[in-house]
Amino acid sequence: MKTLAVNTSRPYEIKIGRGSLDQAGVLCRQAIPNARKLTIVTDSRVLPLYLARTADSLEQMGFQIQCLTVPAGEASKSAEQLVILWEKMMAFGMTRTDAVVALGGGVVGDLAGFAAATLLRGVDYVQIPTTLLSQVDSSVGGKVAIDLRAGKNLAGAFWQPSLVIIDPGCLDTLPDRTFSDGMAEVIKYGCILDRKLFELLNRCGSRVRVMERIVDVVYTCCDLKRRVVVEDERDTGLRQLLNFGHTVGHAFELAGHYETWTHGQGVAAGMNWAAQLGVELGVTPPETVECIQELLKKFDLPLDIPCPWETMTEAVGLDKKNAGDHISLIVLEKLGQAVHRKMARDELLGLLKCMYGR
Ligand code: NAD
Ligand code: ZN
């Protein structure tokens, strides 16, 4: 099993290895030695696949378990579900030394993590991410949140986990679409921070081949995110590089009301747009755009998504007069190297208009 140490304000370890799910008990005993009761939060799809193995392993180490299941899907990242979790955790008799275990994708991780951050003013939690996106992105970094009617992730906290257990074997059961969504974030790391990773993905070129190297791929992504997060735990600078493709990507997600297009699809098309904006700005070499497009296509990710002009300007923050004269964008200097660029609003508006053929 591979280990990464994350030295944030509350240090913790990421354990990565096939079969690590069956080690959950031993690993939790080491990381949270004083916990007695554990509430496992999972969703309706993950439950039949991975709950029994996880719970068995935890019970064998003497933990007392309660399992709470939410319906699979983004709609569960809600205030309503949060209240249900809080109440059931207290009814189970949890105390400040007990802990929450998030077993599932980013939805479960964000929801259970926020429940842990707020219950009794904060109890420990363990992330056991089961989607590619959650293994390479959301389980590391300590951002936890729920959605509000006004938008996604609007109520949340920074709350670092006590342990992250990643079993890439769980990815075998992912639908192709969900696997591709995670690949968008993996490709993002290659674009912004690691050319070698980008080239490895290019050589693999398919899900099957990536799965042959999956432990290395997940380890590399977690290592990259760890470095960024340790430098900028509260998201005030460096961490914003991780938003590459996300500004325009957000417009695409919004255009489909978060239903027609997944986050990964939005980010993929957003990266293609951000790469082209970089070329227009004279920062990104033109051949970089083609490289990114080729790689996205290999993993069945879109290069573009229909999006009304008004939705685009709203998502990019160009509709608000009070947003200031400048807009911050992440662009590529080359593959594997991203930079922050402040752009005058009018300049960005002009470029977008050109790209829209207006
Ligand atoms: P998800 O949690 O909804 O999982 C996607 C689907 O896959 C669900 O239906 C789930 O039941 C199913 N699933 C999970 N594991 C499976 C497995 N091993 N086999 C088969 N099916 C499985 O979505 P996601 O893409 O993992 O995460 C998206 C969420 O993550 C969003 O809410 C997003 O806001 C959040 N997010 C958070 C951060 C962060 O830093 N906290 C970063 C990125 C994204
Ligand atoms: Zn993302």
Automatic annotation (TrEMBL):
Zn(2+) binds at residues 185, 246, 263. Its cofactor is Co(2+); Zn(2+); NAD(+). Its main location: cytoplasm. It is found in: Cytoplasm. Residues 68-180 form the 3-dehydroquinate synthase N-terminal domain. Pathway: Metabolic intermediate biosynthesis; chorismate biosynthesis; chorismate from D-erythrose 4-phosphate and phosphoenolpyruvate: step 2/7. The keyword Zinc applies. GO terms for biological process: amino acid biosynthetic process; aromatic amino acid family biosynthetic process; chorismate biosynthetic process. One of its GO terms (molecular function) is nucleotide binding. Its EC number is 4.2.3.4. Gene3D superfamilies: 3.40.50.1970, Dehydroquinate synthase-like - alpha domain (1.20.1090.10). GO terms for cellular component: cytoplasm. Keywords: Amino-acid biosynthesis, Aromatic amino acid biosynthesis, Cobalt, Cytoplasm, Lyase, Metal-binding, NAD, Nucleotide-binding, Zinc. InterPro entries: Dehydroquinate_synthase (IPR050071), DHQ_synth_AroB (IPR016037), DHQ_synth_fam (IPR030963), DHQS/DOIS_N (IPR030960), DHQS_C (IPR056179). This is 3-dehydroquinate synthase. It comes from Flintibacter hominis. The gene is aroB.
